[in-house]
Amino acid sequence: TWTMVNIVDEAVEDIRAQVGSKQIVCGLSGGVDSSVAAALVQRAVGDQLTCVFVDHGLLREGEAEQVERDFVAATGVDLHVVDAQERFLSALKGVEDPEEKRKIIGREFIRVFEDAAREIVAKAGAEGDEVEFLVQGTLYPDVVESGGGEGAANIKSHHNVGGLPDDLQFTLVEPLRWLFKDEVRAVGEQLGIPADIVWRHPFPGPGLAIRIIGSVDRERLEVLRRADAIARAELTEAGLDRHVWQFPVVLLANVHSVGVQGDERTYGHPVVLRPVSSEDAMTADWSRLPFELLERISTRITNEVREVNRVVLDVTSKPPATIEWE
Ligand code: XMP
Predict the structure, then answer these.
(1) Catalytic activity, per the record (predicted)?
(2) Which ipTM was obtained for this model?
(3) Which one of 70, 194, 229, 237 has the fewest beta carbons within 10 angstroms of its own beta carbon?
């Protein structure tokens, strides 16, 4: 029978057969897929694996620690952390256009990852080992979407990873390519990855940068991070994490709203709560969260995050709206 133990054992066998005694690199994002893929490779060929985590400073509260501390503790991977916060902030300075933000983040990410991979390749080379493989957390639905069948996906991915330069050619190892998301989560649990990571809601690669309407800077990120942490903590406290597909919190940094606190008139910013229900993010419906929960989130955000004086709820489905605001 096809059990989780079988899936793990079989994936481990396949990875060993493919990688042999060569070195292998994996980029971690903090998301479910890259975490589970890395953990499988770690189980298969642990001392040949080096993971890279690029901290672009656009993650939510606690997420970098989840990778650097909890994931490492649970799996024992050799982690190479690149603190690239300054670099991303200065590249994003003054940029308001959402697609421009995405382009900049994608470009910087590739550059930082390239540098890190080059270092790892050089170090391994000096020790007489070659780095030939790169782990990718591709799932079955991605494989089907990118042209269907093994052959097509192989042509697309083999020796051709996301625009890496010629001197950094890797063959991909894709241990999740036969799995659906729920199976990936089950494998993650089987491998002892912390529940916070295994059950994490989808989070976009460009992170909080596309949840700040307007330009991104350190202060705005901090405001959004605090508001977002409150919303997530209250959702968890209410036991509703798994009832919601995603729960973006969006800072309208370009909008000022008038408020009153004590005797003071304030001129702050609104945040938008965007909880949605969905199967696959292609369509979505706004989640009917309990009023008491919404009230707690609103009260706490406006009490605890001085810069925010208004909390609004997005009651639009997708279509016509998208899940994210940018
Ligand atoms: P939308 O906003 O288009 O989002 O309804 C659909 C899903 O995609 C995620 N999303 C992104 N993920 N990079 C990503 O990795 C992006 O630039 C990006 N934009 C949107 C979004 O969070 C939702 O899950």
Answers:
(1) XMP + L-glutamine + ATP + H2O = GMP + L-glutamate + AMP + diphosphate + 2 H(+)
(2) 0.99
(3) 237
